[in-house]
Specification:
The complex is a heterodimer of chains A (367) and B (213).
Chain A: H1 10-24, E1 28-29, E2 35-37, H2 38-43, E3 55-57, E4 63-66, H3 71-77, E5 86-97, E6 104-116, H4 120-137, E7 141-147, H5 148-157, H6 162-173, H7 177-186, H8 191-202, E8 204-205, H9 207-218, H10 225-236, E9 245-248, E10 259-267, E11 275-279, H11 281-286, E12 292-299, E13 315-320, H12 327-339, E14 344-347, E15 356-361, H13 362-366
Parallel strand pairs in A: 1-5, 7-9, 13-14, 13-15
Antiparallel strand pairs in A: 2-4, 3-4, 5-6, 6-12, 7-10, 8-9, 10-11, 11-12
Chain B: E1 5-10, H1 13-24, E2 40-43, E3 48-53, H2 58-63, E4 69-73, H3 74-80, E5 85-89, E6 95-102, E7 113-117, H4 120-129, E8 134-138, H5 145-148, E9 154-159, H6 163-167, E10 170-179, E11 181-185, H7 187-192, H8 194-212
Parallel strand pairs in B: 1-3, 1-4, 7-8, 7-9
Antiparallel strand pairs in B: 2-3, 4-11, 5-11, 6-9, 6-10
The chains are: A alpha/beta (367), B alpha/beta (213).
Chain lengths: 367, 213
């Protein structure tokens, strides 16, 4: 049994370590059906990454969908219990259109959600778990953290009109300071405020470095409670994850659903973010839930091309037998090879496209 | 070993201009000036690798991380909306995205407007914002002849000097957005090669500011 780990793919190994990580912090696994009523997604279309959903009609005539997302289903199905915190993790397949091929893909996703009265400890814990999730994939990783509450405070203080906010957020997400400047000019935002916004976009780095700069810059301009909160969280967080954390306000999840802390995880060698999450109290409110929530998802499909261990051989022993080979001897021989911990493929002819270390002709060499 | 910064340059005149700016910014690679058909050039000392790519493909190379940074026209960025950082407006390759039509053209709100273009997303977004119903005719080149042959009512295309339009008896009806070359970066690679990318941005923005003054 001890060699079984050798046969796991990298994705599977990551999945197992994530499961044990989340379980060790008291998160329980949440299993769900592959199907969900389509109505749930129709009502929350903007929350989905792609708006194409595979639908079909159920035997009762109801329009159903193959799950494109996990969070919405969990929120819908979980029972709210006052004054208790609920912690769940999942490991599920979701169905989405892939950007490149415009066809549906089955995507493996893992993640966790924490529902209830979310306090600073819960935020700390979820950030720690997000950082440790990344670390279980690779040591070369960063977790970029932003605070949408601070952005909203700044927009409010600088009188950014509602209609321009989503455009502004898009530019912040692109670190696009040149167009941000042009937009501010169009909106008649004064140059001092524009400079502050530019600073917010272009300043990124470790919390110890960045937060004091932003605190000083914003203290007399807006409500900086979110910065103080971030500072407290970073001071308290486990030392081992601290080097992975960065403040970067270009992390902008949809402000219709998310509020407070949001974050995205990146791994060197994987071109897009592999982890995304944050606080989504607004989504909870939209779905008539009273409690707050924070969570994240890890996109395991992104790991497919990462850390590909190119095995020199597909199989150690290729054992060729014939019609005349003694069946019980053959069986014994295979069993002995397996006992030694070797792999063996027994067949009558050499298969194409199989790389083997040793070729054994059973009749001439053994039998 | 020094980590290499991978740069996707647009093939053609714009790419040469961009390379000159990169060279001045401290990322030289003299072999790129040799007259041959090679597409990839490296300078290990300067820690940079350049490759020539079709301009409309640059965003793909950067989004998928094959290039750390690249230079793409704003037209391509608006059309394909890649998930990348847009770090700088280089202020070169300036032109505009515009609607053009035959000289006597007027909008007729009682009919569906036929729009010929290479940029269907930009055209769509523009007319949706005006609340107009349109039919998009996707063409890959010689867009200017579409209104002349009555294939379309208007075209949405890049206008540089306007000479081609004039010679085909077309006029600009309205400007949609100004276009210029932008420096884009892959989101992951930006974090792991931040030192050299930030140095590049600083140097290039000093050059563009000097030009604007």
């Amino acid at each position: 049994m001890q060699n079984n780990e050798l046969f796991l793919s990298f994705n599977e190994k990551v999945m197992f370590s994530l499961r044990s990580l989340y379980s060790s912090y008291g998160y329980s696994q949440y299993k769900m059906s592959r199907f969900e009523e389509y109505d749930l997604y129709a009502r929350n279309k903007d929350f989905l990454i792609s708006d194409s959903v595979i639908t079909f009609t159920d035997t009762s005539g109801k329009l159903m969908a193959l799950k494109p997302d996990v969070t919405l289903s969990i929120i819908k199905n979980i029972k709210e219990e006052p004054e208790t915190l609920q912690k769940v993790f999942y490991n599920e397949n979701v169905y989405r259109v892939s950007k490149g091929s415009h066809t549906y893909k089955e995507i493996m996703q893992a993640g966790l959600e924490c529902f209830g009265d979310i306090d600073s400890y819960n935020i700390c814990e979820v950030i720690t778990l997000a950082a440790k999730s990344l670390k279980s994939i690779s040591d070369s990783c960063v977790l970029d953290i932003s605070h949408l509450g601070l952005l909203e405070n700044v927009f409010e203080s600088f009188s950014v009109p509602d209609f321009a906010r989503s455009e502004l957020i898009k530019l912040i997400g692109e670190k696009n300071t040149h167009e941000l400047e042009r937009l501010c000019e169009k909106l008649e935002i004064d140059s001092k405020s524009t400079q502050t916004l530019k600073l917010l976009v272009s300043t990124a780095g470790s919390p110890e470095e960045v937060l004091p700069i932003l605190e000083k810059e914003l203290a007399d301009k807006t409500d900086i409670t979110p910065i103080i909160r971030l500072k407290n969280i970073f001071d308290a967080i486990e030392e081992s994850v601290k080097p992975m954390l960065r403040i970067d306000f270009s992390v902008v999840n949809d402000i219709k659903y998310y509020n407070g802390i949001v974050f995205k995880g990146f791994i060197e060698g994987i071109p897009a973010s592999v982890l995304s999450g944050g606080q989504y109290d607004k989504l909870m409110q939209k779905m008539n839930r009273r409690s707050g929530a924070i969570g994240f998802a890890v996109y395991l499909d992104m790991l497919e091309r990462f850390n590909i261990s190119s095995n020199e051989y597909d199989i150690e022993n290729l054992l060729i037998y014939s019609e005349n080979s003694d069946l019980s001897k053959l069986n014994r021989y295979v069993k002995n090879l397996l006992k030694e911990g070797q792999t063996v493929l027994a067949c009558k002819q050499i298969p194409q496209n199989t790389k083997y270390r040793r070729l054994i002709n059973f009749d001439t060499e053994v039998g | 070993m020094k980590t290499m910064l991978n740069v996707a340059l647009p093939k053609g005149r714009l790419g040469e201009k961009v390379y000159a700016m990169f060279e001045k910014a401290g990322f030289p690679c003299p072999s790129i000036k040799e007259n041959n058909r090679k597409l990839i050039f490296e300078n290990h000392e300067a820690g940079v690798r350049y490759f020539w790519v079709k301009p409309s493909d640059i965003a793909i190379y950067v989004e998928r991380g094959a290039a750390d940074v690249g230079i793409a026209g704003k037209d391509i960025l608006l059309e394909y909306a890649p998930d990348v950082y847009e770090l700088l407006d280089l202020g070169i390759g300036k032109c505009r995205m515009a609607v053009a039509a035959k000289k006597d053209f007027r909008y007729d709100m009682s009919r569906t407007l036929r729009v010929a273009t290479k940029f269907k997303n930009i055209a769509n977004a523009h007319y949706i914002s005006k609340g107009m119903n349109i039919d998009i005719i996707h063409l890959n080149g010689s867009i200017e002849i579409a209104p002349i042959l009555d294939l379309s009512d208007v075209i949405v295309d890049i206008v540089e000097t306007g000479t081609t339009l004039k010679e085909n008896n077309l006029d600009v009806v309205e400007e949609i957005v100004p276009i210029s070359a932008r420096l884009i970066a892959n989101k992951t690679n930006f974090k792991f090669k931040s030192e050299s990318i930030e140095r590049l941005v600083r140097e290039l923005s000093a050059q563009t500011e000097a030009k604007n003054d």
